[in-house]
Amino acid sequence: MIFTVAIDGPAAAGKGTISKQVAAHFGFAHLDTGLIYRATGARVLAGEDPLAAAKDLRPEDLQRDDLRTTEVAQAASKVAVMADVRAALAAFQQAFARREGGAVLDGRDIGTVICPEAEVKLFVTASDAVRGERRFQELSGKGHDVTRASVLADLKARDARDSEREAAPLRAAEDAVVLDTSDMSIAQAVDEAIATIRRVLG
Ligand code: CDP
User: Fold this and answer.
1) How does DSSP assign 10-52, residue by residue?
2) The whole model's pTM is what?
3) Which residues line ligand 1 (CB under 6 A)?
4) Model pLDDT, residue 202
């Protein structure tokens, strides 16, 4: 069975958690496409050329333990503006989306550019305040040295860069179901996502 669930949305809206749980529920494979951009950004921070790093990305690059830092997040959104970098990373994501057995991909442009034929498209969002608080709790819980203000500034800067870029800007596909998780628990958001997918699976 070929079945793609595309989950897009701004930073820290809950895409990652929802994607993982939805994939586990249906037995689909999951790809966090943000990690690919973060791994490329991390190599650029270490001095590499962005396109060379994107073309040479290896599985172990996705396992680095520094990918969740705000520095790497910023570097990711800077390489993500480059059309040639995005093109170098597209084929892998497209093959993953149409792999046998079903796939969930989360990112910014999955429903619009990577897999416009996705059977289900969700656009997951939440207010700035809620996203800032969630990401602050996540990062401080992992021992990162961050403040609420610095986390919110990172999210806003990336959202602006991601939305305003020319190549594959962050936006909901016309046929996406919008899921505003501001007033939802993670469990509620996951339930909503599962119900939407069930309606399509039949
Ligand atoms: O986890 P969070 O939502 O904060 O970010 P992420 O999904 O890990 O993505 C990090 C950065 O990669 C984003 O700010 C985007 O600039 C870029 N990205 C993208 O351009 N396209 C994607 N499909 C996924 C991520």
Assistant:
1) STTSSHHHHHHHHHHHHT-EEEEHHHHHHHHHHHHHTT--HHH
2) 0.97
3) 11-12, 16, 33-34, 37-38, 73, 76-77, 80, 107-109, 158, 162
4) 85
